[in-house]
Specification:
mainly beta; Immunoglobulin-like; 2 domains; 4-stranded antiparallel β-sheet; disordered N terminus
């Protein structure tokens, strides 16, 4: 669904049964706008009808971005390194404190270094033989998913090679 342009929903009315629609987006010079008064029911209806409007929906304040991974360091490791426990760094963007690295479907204890870097230790409990492993990052949704806000998600897959 599309987003409703140029409005946000704020309960600024002293009357409990009405809210004001306030302009929220940039308006070009010369364009005039007015504050419109609608019922609280209509405001709620608009929020429910246009659920994909994270930037315009104040209920989406705790929405988390979906993670993006761009590289692994190292991208190839030996099985001997796995036996000793090797540190894998996942580079990307939009990582948050709750982001976790997932290898072959197993969620690992993850150190969030920054919004662009995560680290995990790979051992033989995870990798039992040479081959390849699929690496993703998962960010759980925030507490706003139940009000129609997109939040969190799983990154694309990168392949770690174990020789």
């Amino acid at each position: 669904m599309g987003c409703l342009p140029s409005i946000a929903y704020f309960p600024v009315s002293p009357q409990p049964d009405a809210v004001d629609l306030l302009p929220f987006a940039y308006f070009p010079p010369g364009v005039r706008y007015r504050m419109k008064r609608i019922s609280a029911f209509c405001a709620l209806l608009l929020v429910l009808v246009f659920p994909g409007c994270n930037a315009l929906n104040p209920l989406c304040g705790s929405a988390r971005p979906a993670p993006v991974i761009v590289s692994l360091s190292p991208s190839t490791i030996t099985f001997a390194e796995v036996e000793q426990g090797v540190l894998l760094t996942v580079n990307g963007r939009q990582f948050v404190s709750s982001s976790v690295v997932v290898i072959n479907g197993t969620t690992l204890s993850t150190k969030v270094v920054s919004s662009q870097q995560l680290q995990v230790t790979i051992t033989t409990t995870l990798i039992s033989a040479p081959g390849t492993a699929n690496v993703t990052v998962n960010t759980p949704s925030g507490n706003s998913g139940d009000v129609g806000c997109s939040s969190g998600g799983t990154s694309g897959v990168l392949v770690l090679t174990i020789t």
